[in-house]
Amino acid sequence: MNKALKEILFSEEEIRAKVKELGKEITHDYMDKDLYVVGILKGSFIFMADLVREISLPLLVDFMSVSSYGRNAKSNGEVKILKDLDFSVEGRDVLIVEDIIDSGYTLKYIEQMFKTRGANSVKFAAFLDKKESRKVEMEVHYKGYEVPNDFIVGYGLDYSEEYRNLPYIATLKEEVYK
């Protein structure tokens, strides 16, 4: 194990099983709907790639790059869109895919924006939910796991652009990011 890691929370096998389960649930819920899956870059790209392969429906895939962190380890609440969608959400059922939900500021902002743009519905799929860090009320419709208020890396999640390629989810030792 990498010396910067404190502990492994979820193995490759656990991740694979959870993604398969979420894909089946989404397939069932979006039957006969116009599904538009939007990944929030960069962290969601691995989860989203695995997830859409488990959804047995026609769908449109797109990405947004959004930030409420700047250069900080915690969200400051100010949301900036760095890359917007390539297609319209109007009349579509949007599923926003996120690696981890922390404060909730970013997703709440995007949800309101998509509703204003005319989406039929907006729901969230997050692989990890750091519920004790939540600053805004929101429903996570498809959730992999709840995690503690530690710094989490792996399976797309990073610290200073490192650790995204780990095939498992782990916590980072505090001395690494403090």
From TrEMBL:
Catalytic activity: GMP + diphosphate = guanine + 5-phospho-alpha-D-ribose 1-diphosphate; IMP + diphosphate = hypoxanthine + 5-phospho-alpha-D-ribose 1-diphosphate
Phosphoribosyltransferase domain boundaries: 13-159
Membrane-spanning segments: none
Gene Ontology BP, a term: guanine salvage
Pathway(s) of this molecule: Purine metabolism; IMP biosynthesis via salvage pathway; IMP from hypoxanthine: step 1/1; Purine metabolism; GMP biosynthesis via salvage pathway; GMP from guanine: step 1/1
Lineage: Bacteria, Bacillati, Bacillota, Tissierellia, Ezakiella
Protein name, entry field: Hypoxanthine phosphoribosyltransferase
InterPro entries on file: HGPRT (IPR050408), Hxn_phspho_trans (IPR005904), PRTase-like (IPR029057), PRTase_dom (IPR000836)
